[in-house]
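Structure tokens please, single chain.
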Amino acid sequence: MKRQFTWLDKTIIAFAGFFFIAPLIAAAEYSARGYGNKGHTLSNYSWIIHQLGFSPALWTSLRIAAITILIVLVLMVPTVVYVHLGGRKYRRLVEILCLLPIVIPVVSLAIGAQVAMPKSLQSTSYELCFFYVVVAMPYVYRTLDIGLQSVSLSTLVEASHSLGANWIKTLLMVIIPAIRSSTTGALFITFALSLGEYTLAVLLHFHTFPTWATNASQQNIYGSIAISVTTLGGAWILLILVAFLPRIKSLFARKERVA
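Here you go.
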């Protein structure tokens, strides 16, 4: 049964949409202004591409984000599933551990934990992946926890096992598709955090996209807003693609069966 939206629901959704979209539209308009507020141009966006160090910094951050997402999903999804199935007595402990990164200052994490990393990692930017995993844990845990609370997890697992699937197949083919929206949300949060985290990168002296953007934005005020709009818009486009990719695949598969 579909829910009927009342006028209050529609008003809240419209206000929330305006609250998030209006600043983005205003920033995009400001970033497209010509010097001296003379007309509008896309030169500020082309300026980003032609800045020295843009491609290496962006590629480094994308590579770090991809590895961070992989580590987060491999670590957190089985952990949260276990807590919901047979490890309820460890639920409070897991929650406390996942909330610790919120109260521990990032400076302490960068300076204190950095010396505990293997020396082979300390000299590479891949060291940031593990720090980003720790920073993203509170948000990823809560997102996955809410998603698993909305499904009958024990029923899904029993049905999958009764059909002969092992734990890995059950996790990949039953549980993750059942909480696809939560998994997508966790992926988006981790990607946005990895692409925009500045403090850890600058404290550990790594050249990533946020550090490059900070240095480049000092040269061009319109260009700095253009960098922000591009980063936020790119993250939203990625989220939309990830969210609708399974539907697009199913649509093409349905058309092939009909043909």
